[in-house]
Amino acid sequence: MFAAALSAVPAFSDDQQKAEKQIRKISAMATDVNARSIVSRSMSDMLKVERNQLQRERRAMNLNYGCLFIAHELTARGMKMLDLAMRLQAHETIFQIANEQHSDWKKIADDAKKLNGRIEDNIYKHFLHADADRDRDLTEKYNSTADWVKTDADATPAEIVEAQEIYVQWRDRAAAIEGKGGSVSASDKLASQKLEDQAHDVGRMTGRAPTGAGPH
User: Which of 41-45, 135-139, 159-163, 184-188 is predicted least confidently?
Assistant: First the structure.
């Protein structure tokens, strides 16, 4: 039995590493003010939680979107959000709390991967139907500039580059069918071009240029 328990440790650790990778991917995408709106919509739809509630929780607990996703995974298993907030105030990390709750890291990894897939789908759809997204933001009184907490800056330069590459990739795919019914607006083109420029700037600092991006 002891040997079996020991053999389970690497698998558990591997599941947590996979989950953390997906979680950090969510957080990195939300570092940009334009992409943050898409992350917010995607998480709201997946969790069936209103965006203003997600924003209040982020502010109250100083959680980036990836860590907020873990918080909702924990509350879905019965943990009270207030208890979680108090433990965060006591300087425990969301990952420490999740481990103390004996969380199923494989499920968290799978769920976070699904959210990342939804985010990528919604980036693509945004550049095809940007007006619908803007209308929803107005209806829900969502302002991505105001939706910011300190931990949004926790993403590493390499993670930001990867997020920007993904964003630009889906923008370009949408632009490729622009003549077939797509409608990438001038303002969205400008916003995504800014993202691409930022990716080049970070790439120069880290020594990793964005893949598939041409010279400026």
Answer: 184-188
In angstroms, the CA 130 to CA 125 distance is: 8
What's the token pair of residue 62? Answer: 């100083």
pTM to 2 decimals?
0.80
* Tens digit of each residue's pLDDT (9 = 90 or more) over 115-125: 999 999 999 99
> How does pLDDT run across 189-207, given as a tens digit for each residue?
445 555 555 544 444 433 4
- Following DSSP, what letter does each residue of 137-148 receive, concatenated? HHHTT--TTT--
Q: What are the b/e assignments for 95-121, b being 16+ CB within 10 Å? A: bebbeeeebbbeebbebbbebbebbbe
Report the half-sphere exposure of 178 (CA within 13 A, side-chain side). Answer: 15
Specify the DSSP element, H or E, that contains 48. Answer: none
How many other CB atoms are there within 10 angstroms of residue 162's CB atom? 21
Please choose, from the candidates 43, 41, 37, 6, the residue with its C-alpha nearest in 3D space to the C-alpha of residue 22. 43
